[in-house]
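debug: dumping io for the single-chain case to check the tokenizer round-trip. Nothing else runs in this session.
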Amino acid sequence: MINVGIISYAHPHALRYGTTFASNSKAKLYAISGDGANRDVAKSEAEKLKAKFYQNYEALLKDKKVDAVYIAIETYRHKEVAIRAAEEGKHILLEKPIALTLEDADEI
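debug: decoded output
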């Protein structure tokens, strides 16, 4: 079983991913962070889907039980968050566009 964390609900389609992970037999929606826009939605979804809620993505990334993250934070923050997730050894699902510039995408 893979424990998945969702970083932010800034983009509305993260709602679909939360439900998908929560109902998957090979993955468990383990945690959600409230970074970025729609913090209240993220907290509400965490309660509804019985996932742990973190105020910020740094705390979620430090949780050793999280194996992989879906990053749905605002695009201008993709580079920052994806690099931190990699530094913490997490598997990463990063929505498109991967970054705002080719240089940032190359860094990721």
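debug: round-trip ok. The first strand starts at residue 2 and ends at 7.
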